[in-house]
UniProtKB/TrEMBL annotation:
GO BP, sorted A to Z: negative regulation of transcription elongation by RNA polymerase II
Single Gene Ontology MF annotation: RNA binding
UniProt xrefs under Gene3D superfamilies: 3.30.70.330
Keywords in alphabetical order: Nucleus, Repressor, RNA-binding, Transcription, Transcription regulation
Domain RRM: 323-403
Phylogenetic classification of the source organism: Eukaryota, Sar, Stramenopiles, Oomycota, Saprolegniomycetes
Compartments, record wording: Nucleus
The protein, known as: RRM domain-containing protein
Length: 409
């Protein structure tokens, strides 16, 4: 609690200081910029350490600061009515269309430098009002197809599309939505709206991605099979975003969240990616995707993947041969995984290593397996006729130095 008060107090001091400096000359702009960076750094640090709960009170502070600086705007915001909604839509439409030809650092007012199309502003304002009417409730997404079609068409306007994305972000994160009766019926519509934003507005891809991240992290209290399917659908949309060009943020998310994601989701993601990629690949792409493929949890998940996926994996490794070191790492890991899997049928394997030539990166034709118990060693030696990768294998017991001396005694 004390940390929350300290945070709010510090933010209040910074906001008041900035407000005081705003009345000074233009020479203080660099100082105001530094104060704003400091405030943003503080905001991000508290958000990382404590989450949203410590930031809720700050919104009141921000509104108080705005109200003090702009009394007329404060009075307008206080009016909650249809007229208020119309006014807000007009302000947003104007801000989205007005063109200011003044230099970036200009501080003087020049009406001649401002130009806007009144008809265009009214068109956008009407679209914003119509979208806000549809976005009042999630139930609209589940049964009113005509309203959804209008919403999709209105997303051709960037500011309307961004407003819908912000609404979807709040909606998907709401417990009353993802634990409610309309979640599974409305979810396909949510994905359809996200795909529409992906197709129309490249600049909105980061916002779309944040909605998808929120969606894949959900833990709804409903049928686990349906929940898994919604997460798979979210991953399909993520891969679609990758194919459009937003590649590395998606791969980075999967790479950093591998330990938290279900193996079925990881397998599904890799299958989707392999179905949609084709050479030539950039070095950065092969490196990042290979890091994901070589993760133990992903390797475990891919053991039960279809034959087509395994063939795609081999194709990917083959293409990576241009990067000898990287390709060798992939082949070595896959070989050792199969090696260990074969001998695990005789007992717990502590380690399994295939020996490779450092210069050619090819297998030297032998390897070492360490079992947890001597009983497993006896079993594997008793069972003759071992065949690995279509080749007959001869097994020998190797004793440690202490075991050799023990037998000599």
């Amino acid at each position: 609690m004390h940390s929350a008060y300290s945070y709010i107090y510090t933010q209040q001091v910074l906001l008041q200081l900035d407000q005081t400096l705003s009345t000074s000359s233009v020479h203080v702009l660099p100082y105001r910029s530094k104060l704003e960076r400091l405030r943003q750094t503080l905001h991000e640090a508290v958000l990382t350490a404590h989450g949203d709960q410590k930031l809720d009170s700050l919104h009141v502070l921000k509104r108080a600061g705005v109200s003090a600086a702009y009394p007329a705007l404060s009075e307008a915001i206080a009016v909650e009515s249809a007229g208020h909604r119309t006014s807000c839509a007009f302000v947003l439409a104007y801000a989205a269309t007005v063109q200011d030809t003044r230099p970036l650092l200009a501080t003087t007012t020049d009406d001649q430098a401002m130009s806007w199309d009144e008809a265009q502003v009214h068109t956008i304002a009407a679209a914003l009002e119509a979208a806000s009417t549809v976005c009042k409730s999630e139930t609209t997404l589940s049964y009113n197809s005509d309203a959804v079609d209008k919403l999709v068409r209105s997303m051709a306007i960037p500011v309307v599309s961004m407003g819908i994305l912000h609404w979807l972000q709040l909606l998907v994160a709401s417990k009353t939505f993802y634990n409610g009766p309309f979640f599974h019926a409305a979810f396909p519509v949510v994905m359809s709206l996200l795909r529409q934003a992906i197709a129309l507005h490249v600049g909105q891809w980061p916002t779309v991605f944040q909605v998808l991240v929120t969606s894949v992290r959900l833990q709804p209290e409903s049928n686990p099979v349906k929940v898994l399917e919604t997460k798979k659908e979210t991953l399909r949309c993520m891969v679609h975003l990758m194919t459009c060009g937003y590649i590395f943020p998606v791969l980075h998310f999967i790479a950093t969240q591998t330990d938290d994601l279900d193996q079925a989701l990881l397998r599904h993601f890799i299958q989707l990616v392999l179905m949609r990629i084709a050479p030539p690949y950039s070095l950065r792409f092969t490196t990042v995707l290979s890091d994901i493929l070589l993760h133990p949890k992903v390797s475990q998940a891919l053991r039960t993947c279809p034959v087509e996926t395994k063939a795609k994996l081999k194709e990917f490794a083959h293409v990576c041969q241009a990067e000898d070191e990287l390709a060798a790492d992939i082949r070595r890991t896959l070989s050792e995984t199969e090696f260990k899997k074969y001998f695990s049928q005789y007992g717990k394997v502590v380690s399994a290593e295939v020996m490779f030539n450092r210069e050619t990166n090819k297998s030297r034709g032998f390897g070492f397996v360490i079992f947890e118990t001597e009983h497993s060693v006896d079993l594997v030696l008793q069972d003759g006729g071992h065949v690995l990768d279509g080749k007959s294998v001869r097994l020998l017991r190797i004793l440690s130095e202490s075991q050799v001396w023990g037998r000599l005694k």
